[in-house]
Design brief:
By secondary structure, this protein is an all-alpha fold. It has a single domain, classed as MFS general substrate transporter like domains (Growth Hormone, Chain: A, Up-down Bundle). The protein is about 80% helix and about 0% strand. Helix 3 packs parallel to helix 5. The longest helix is centred in the last third of the chain and has 35 residues. The radius of gyration is 19 Å and the shape is elongated. It starts with a helix and ends in a 10-residue tail after the last helix.
């Protein structure tokens, strides 16, 4: 889940800048469908868990939504409609919001009072480690796809930059950069689908234990 979440947060803004031509501020604002829904979903999940004492439905639903969001983003293209992109990011955001913090709570709830801090730290470390490994692996896939789609004699990393620098390239080269970057990012999201599905299976296998302080 860490790999899937960080992969979306890291590479989608770059897609919005390199391929869609938005500046950094605009790209950040266009990420609101993912970031905003993630915050709202996480808050609502916390309130409902506090009220009901039941938690398993949230990460199960969240992992399913993350899988669906990755599937929706996998056919990404330079001309993907803005409403499709926003909807897919929203699905991904709700899924991560229902999952990330709840799994930390689950880890803390499974141990005694003296180990709550250790359990929470271990869960957070696992998520961060997954994000670091995932971003590195996805970056390698993205770079490889860009190299294969860039004209001979050109280095893909040298062509990436601000929207203005990409737009200043010769038309055929700029189009090649946008197409190869989108193709690489599409491959990245395709790779996140089995990861999200594996997370869903793992959560389904976790036994739902009562929260501390409840019958």
């Amino acid at each position: 889940m860490g790999a899937v979440m960080f992969g979306g947060v890291i590479y989608l803004p770059q897609y919005l800048q390199v391929v869609r031509g938005h500046d950094a501020t605009e790209a950040g604002l266009l990420m609101l469908p993912q970031v905003g829904t993630m915050i709202v979903a996480s808050t609502l999940a916390g309130r409902l868990i506090t009220r009901t004492g039941r938690w398993k439905v949230f990460p199960v639903t969240g992992c399913a939504l993350v899988t669906a969001g990755a599937v929706l983003l996998s056919p990404l293209a330079p001309d993907t409609p803005a409403w499709w992109l926003a909807g897919a990011m929203a699905v991904l955001g709700v899924g991560t919001g229902l999952t990330q913090q709840v799994l930390v709570l689950v880890a803390q709830n499974a141990v005694g009072p003296g180990d709550v801090g250790t359990a929470g730290a271990a869960a957070t470390f696992s998520r961060t480690l997954g994000g670091a490994v995932g971003v590195a692996a996805f970056g390698a896939v993205l770079s490889a796809r860009m190299r294969s789609g860039t004209p001979p004699g050109q280095e893909a990393r040298d062509l990436l930059g601000t929207p203005e620098s990409v737009a200043a390239l010769p038309a055929h080269l700029a189009e090649s950069v946008r197409a190869s970057y989108t193709d690489g990012l599409s491959s990245v999201f395709l790779l996140t689908v089995p990861l999200a599905a594996a997370a869903l299976v793992a959560v389904l296998l976790v036994r739902e234990t009562p929260l501390e302080g409840r019958d």
